[in-house]
């Protein structure tokens, strides 16, 4: 068993041991094809919960580059396919690395809001989600993480059906266009969050 698979099994064990962890809609993760998964972001545990929910494919998540300044953590993140990014100003090489990961069959994991939203509710979606999906010719699977993050309480991972941006592949889009399309995905995440929080 390689390091990635061992770690994901550990994530799943952690999630089921310390939380009432459940996944709804796992069948909506395609077994092949270019894929981006997008989720809301409240806690550092979110990446663990998402990775534990996707068993049939390897995830390459996008994370702030500051995490890679910690040497032991940097080594682990690299082994887990995590791609460092400057959230304020992503450079060309980072964008190429992300698109290469999608092309090579990894599931790109991204938070549309770009950072943790600590207060109640949701933030605004950034352009990156839809830009990577369109340039990478990938479908997007919206994931709603529903939890208060208290030990032994319920964590629900609600996975919706894939959404295609194929109609935009040949379009010349602005940053505002990408932000609007990313926000559309976030609205799906929000709707599922509120429906399944009841």
Structural class: alpha/beta
Number of strands: 7
Mean pLDDT, as a whole number? 95
Q: Which H/E pattern describes the elements?
A: HEEHEHEHEHEEH
Task: Give the N-to-C terminal Cα separation.
Answer: 39 Å
Any idea what the shape is? Answer: globular
Which strand order does the major sheet show?
A: 1-7-6-2-5-3-4
Major sheet, described briefly? 7 strands, mixed
Low-confidence regions: none
Q: Indicate the proportion of strand residues.
A: 15-25%
Can you describe this structure?
By secondary structure, this protein is of the alpha/beta class. The protein has 6 helices and 7 strands, in the order αββαβαβαβαββα. The chain has a 7-stranded mixed β-sheet, with helices on both faces. The longest helix is centred in the last third of the chain and has 23 residues. The radius of gyration is 16 Å and the shape is globular.
Structure, briefly:
The protein is of the alpha/beta class. 38% of the residues lie in helices and 19% in strands.
């Amino acid at each position: 068993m390689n390091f990635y698979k061992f770690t994901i099994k550990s994530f799943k064990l952690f999630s089921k041991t310390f939380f009432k962890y459940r996944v709804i809609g796992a069948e909506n993760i395609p077994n092949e094809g270019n894929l981006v998964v997008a989720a809301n972001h409240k806690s550092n545990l979110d990446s663990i919960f998402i990775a534990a929910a996707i068993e049939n494919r390897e995830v390459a998540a996008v994370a702030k580059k500051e995490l890679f300044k910690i040497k032991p953590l940097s080594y682990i993140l690299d082994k887990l396919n995590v791609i460092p990014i400057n959230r304020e100003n992503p450079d060309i090489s980072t964008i190429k690395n992300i698109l290469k990961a999608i092309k090579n069959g990894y599931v790109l994991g991204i938070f549309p809001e770009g950072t943790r939203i600590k207060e109640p509710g949701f933030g605004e979606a950034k352009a990156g989600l839809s830009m990577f999906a369109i340039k990478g010719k990938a479908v997007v699977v919206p994931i709603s993480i529903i939890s208060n993050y208290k030990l032994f309480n319920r964590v629900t991972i609600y996975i919706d059906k894939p959404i295609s941006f194929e109609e935009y592949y040949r379009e010349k889009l602005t940053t505002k266009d990408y932000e609007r399309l990313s926000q559309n995905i976030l609205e799906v995440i929000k709707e599922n969050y509120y429906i399944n929080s009841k």
